[in-house]
Task: structure prediction
Amino acid sequence: MLSELLGASEPLFTISLEQLERGSANPSADVRLTAEIIGKTHMQMKALGLDPRDTTGKELYQALMNLTAKHDTFLANRLGGKDPEDVHEMLPLIKRMAERIDIPKDAWVLKHSVAKKLLKACPPKKVMKQLGYRSIDSMLKREPIDEIYGALRFAESPQWLENFLQKYKKLTPADFETRRIEIIHLDSKKWGATTESFVHKKRHNITHLKELGVILMLPMPMTRMRGITITALPLLLHYINEIRLYSAYFKMQQVNHKFGEILVDTLIADPSHHAVMAGQHIHWRVIQRYFGKLEKESHPEIFEPHVQPEDLHWRKAEEVLYRLEPALHFWHDMDYVGLSMDERPVSFNLMDMAVSYVNQLPYGSHAIYHFRESLWNEIFMRYMGQRALENQVLKQLDNEMIEPETMAFSIRGL
Result:
């Protein structure tokens, strides 16, 4: 069932699970996870008024879409919105709520003074032209540096961006500082035309800059959109977690003499080989979330003094949202849950359902990306919870993130 939910290739997937089982003294984590997913899907289908024995995938999907619509209205009302589909009314309310929610929002990011020096050495001609500046000094004096950096990815060419990021190789830990994550709503008159293709391609208007600790809310090309609240607010919470995730990773790498190279490689390629566990490559995301769930007393010594327990702390968007609006408890701890029906599984992941709802995706073309990503992570975290594999990962981290062995295949690539 796990193989079907993930769309994984066989027999490589089964071989991978067997390696994890053997490496962790056969705890049958995959069997327990499968049983848990089945139990959760049956329970939630009954909550929707459906019979798990004779409900079709299309019927389940439609029921989840209806619930998403209802919860979007609840959430918009909780934020003080009068019209849940009014983009201009809801986006400022969504931004304000994300800034008010009591979750950790500090991150270890690039100093603004250093960011300006980098741009002076490599002026972004297209951004300057769009804003009407001939001098880079004049632009840096009058325009917010975080906004300029956000505009780089939309206005400049991919080749310019890659060349610019390569200059990060000369950065050192001294160029970073702890700063609060900032959410910026870009002005539609300045950036609307530039960001429109990104919004169309990604099907949402939220993105982020890991190295600067900035989340960008891009201008929307329409004035009305259903599901804007239940899509944008979880994404803002998701990107707060993402920035803190990479912040902790960069802090972990301060002692590495290849700090700059690691920074560039992460921003450009985001490799998933941060450690090897029973022959499988695992991403820092899994490591951070696993140790972030442990009590402070269980914080491994190897993370100190640079990475503290609060650096690893994270909370799922669904958990934060149901505390804001209790009706959304339906989605709590369902991010890795799905049901194999027809050729494409039905996702119980709130972010998937929000993307499907806001884009009116038909059954068969519905979103499943976030669910599959969460399920991969859940599998790895279940096995990392076994002492033998946890020690295996910690040993690699203790060796200053030594490159793990090159494997013939990676579970990520299946």
In short: Residues 339 and 346 are 5 Å apart (CA to CA).
